[in-house]
Amino acid sequence: MKKFLVLSMMILSAVGFSQKLTESQKFWINLEKHCGKSYEGTVTQGGKEGDGFTGKKLVMQVLSCEPNRIRIPFYVGDDKCRTWVLFKNEEQILRLKHDHRHEDGTEDKVTQYGGENSNHGFENLQMFPADKETAQRISYASTNLWWITLDEKTFTYNLRRIGSDRLFTATFDLTKPVEFNEKPWGWKE
């Protein structure tokens, strides 16, 4: 029996089962577990009356999970213009982009901005400092830092503009999926 266990471990090791996952891979896998589900949330930091978010129904929908792209529409009341798009490359570096659309599906003037994590982050936290493309498109966003936290109970989307008092956090309860059958403006499979 002992020889069988040793041989089995050697075989598993040889075929790569002992290979460790990076923190960003673990994060990605945990996020994929929510594919097809929707969750309600609230503004938990930075909100104030009249900001366009506070007091409105917030829903995140993990609508599409592909091998290298996860799309998460973020609905604010009846506004269906926002989708968070996460990409991963071969090195397991993650990128966050914001896809903003008009009701007719055309891209907003301010869209496709975001950042790339500079390392593998943590299993439950990925940070995305603004990238060059964002700085060129939207100069005031060049100091933006976005981060997402993910654990068994919550998903948070966060924005901090370094050098200012701008801070925004939306927190979603992952313990209570909600029925939600909407699609964001301009959605294409």
Please describe the topology of this protein.
Blueprint lengths: L1 H13 L8 H10 L5 E8 L12 E4 L2 E3 L2 E8 L2 E10 L5 E7 L12 E4 L8 E5 L2 H6 L6 E7 L3 E8 L5 E12 L11
The major β-sheet equals: 11 strands, antiparallel
What is the name of the CATH architecture? Beta Barrel
Looking at CATH, which topology would you report? Lipocalin
Low-confidence stretches: 1-9
Please, could you describe this protein's structure?
The chain is α+β, with helices and mostly antiparallel strands and 189 residues long. It has a single domain, classed as Lipocalin (Beta Barrel), CATH 2.40.128. It has three helices and eleven strands, in the order H-H-E-E-E-E-E-E-E-E-H-E-E-E. The chain has helices at residues 2-14, 23-32, 132-137; strands spanning 38-45, 58-61, 64-66, 69-76, 79-88, 94-100, 113-116, 125-129, 144-150, 154-161, 167-178. Strands 1, 2, 3, 4, 5, 6, 7, 8, 9, 10 and 11 form an eleven-stranded antiparallel beta sheet that branches. The radius of gyration is 19 Å and the shape is globular. It starts with a helix and ends in an 11-residue tail after the last strand.
Task: Provide the descriptors you would attach to this structure in a database record.
single chain, 189 residues, alpha+beta, Lipocalin, 3 helices, 11 strands, 40% strand, globular, disordered N terminus
Quick take:
With 189 residues, the chain is α+β, with helices and mostly antiparallel strands. The chain is built from three helices and eleven strands; from the N terminus they run H-H-E-E-E-E-E-E-E-E-H-E-E-E. A hairpin with a 2-residue loop joins strand 4 and strand 5 (79-88).
